[in-house]
Amino acid sequence: MNKVIKVSEKFPYPGPRFIKLGPQSGEAFKMYLYKQLKDIYGETFNDNLNYKVTINLDQTIGYGSSFLEEGFGGLIRMGVPFNIVNNIHIISNEEPELIGEIKEYIEDEKNKHA
């Protein structure tokens, strides 16, 4: 099974890190992803582990590093297991360098909580 999350459908104009700083924030994106992941993997993130989540970053106006760090690194801070976050398949044909950047945010956050 596969769930594709197209960021541009909910966050076409990715904004600042926190909700208090403006609309379409990384914090709001993180909360949206958290809910999607809980719906798939359950309260303890132990259900449907064969499910594949794909996030398509294309067709927005672009991303600030704080939006991406809060959105992906923030999932680890919220208690989503590293293996779930790290196994999210990311599509970014428009800016392929974002994939490596996001993987670094996830890895950095994992190392802080190791």
UniProtKB/TrEMBL annotation:
Any one Pfam family match given in the protein's UniProt record, by short name: DUF4325
Domain DUF4325: 44-96
InterPro entries: DUF4325
Protein name, per record: DUF4325 domain-containing protein
Native species: Candidatus Pantoea symbiotica
